[in-house]
Design a protein that fits this description.
The chain is of the alpha/beta class. The chain is built from 6 helices and 14 strands. α5 links the parallel β7 and β8.
Length: 294
């Protein structure tokens, strides 16, 4: 009897994850405090999205609701940390008009590629077809209003101060490694507060933490929080994905180098979410003279 009860709980949890959980969006607000934040960037708000996986989505009404929720937020810049699609550019067609309605803030929209954006997980008839698919995905990013940072950086100037936004192509322990941190950081002022967009959080662990360049804040996604776990804010955060990724959800601080891992907007594989809700993140930079790093 006990076994039947446990099986029933799991069964209904997974059903809930499919019919409700996968579209149960939440806004997470997180402060990032550092003495390296320039004075005029105090309270500067970054909205982060990640892992849309448009080829998996199935409810236009729910995605419109999510876009409305995004547009209700106050933010200065918007960043997307990769995996627009599962593999094919055609996945964007159904959702393009809806996603394009996400408002563009004062300092623009920026993005980096995720491992799925390269089309490596499906078979194309020819390499030419695969290249055309990839080029179309790049075009869709532009059509949706995003500036792609493919191993590039841009200066964000506010009044008299400047911070650097740096974006790398995908680099991960287990997946494609096209990211070039040195190239992406070329000509960046070492004294600037530096925000790094890198899809896979294992990049932070393996290349960013001990890099001679001090990256103040890294923003990643990729893990989806496994789309399964238990999260009780302030008390418990657990998912099986922790056995694969040391940093899998939320904010981490390693010797003053911050990493935020977004739990993702969409889903892939299992068409649902149990205990790990899809996420819209608002990160607020705060100047704090008592938190001196680097």
């Amino acid at each position: 009897v006990f076994g039947v009860i446990i099986a029933g709980i799991h069964f209904f949890a997974f059903l809930h994850g499919i019919f409700i959980g996968r579209y149960n969006y939440r806004v997470i607000e997180q402060n990032v405090a550092s003495a390296n934040v320039p004075a005029s960037f105090n309270e500067f708000k970054i909205l982060q999205l990640s892992d849309m996986h448009l080829g998996s989505l199935a409810r236009p009404d729910k995605i419109k609701e999510a876009v409305n929720l995004i547009n209700q937020q106050e933010y200065d810049i918007l960043v997307f940390t990769g995996d627009l699609v599962n593999a094919r550019a055609v996945e964007v067609d159904k959702w393009k008009d809806i996603i394009a309605n996400i408002k563009t803030p004062k300092y623009g929209k920026y993005a980096v590629l995720g491992n799925h954006d390269y089309g490596d997980y499906v078979k194309f008839d020819t390499e030419v077809d695969k290249k055309q698919n990839f080029n179309q995905i790049l075009k869709f990013y532009s059509d949706l209003g995003f500036t792609l940072l493919n191993n590039q950086n841009v200066a964000i100037t506010n009044q008299k101060d400047t911070i650097s936004l740096i974006g790398v192509e995908n680099w991960g322990r287990k997946f494609i490694q096209k990211g070039d941190l040195k190239l992406a950081s070329k000509n960046v002022n070492p004294n600037h507060f530096k925000i790094l967009l890198s899809h896979d959080p294992s990049h932070f662990e393996l290349e960013v933490i001990n890099n001679k360049t001090f990256y103040d804040l890294t923003l990643s996604g990729h893990t989806h929080g496994f789309q399964f776990g238990i999260e009780i804010p302030g008390y418990l955060q657990w998912s099986p994905v922790k056995w694969v990724y040391k940093h899998w959800a939320g904010l981490y601080n390693e010797n003053g180098r911050y990493l935020y891992v977004n739990r993702g907007f969409g889903y892939h594989g299992y068409p649902g979410r149990v205990g790990v809700r899809p996420e819209i993140t608002i990160l607020t930079l705060q100047y704090d003279q008592n938190k001196k790093y680097n």
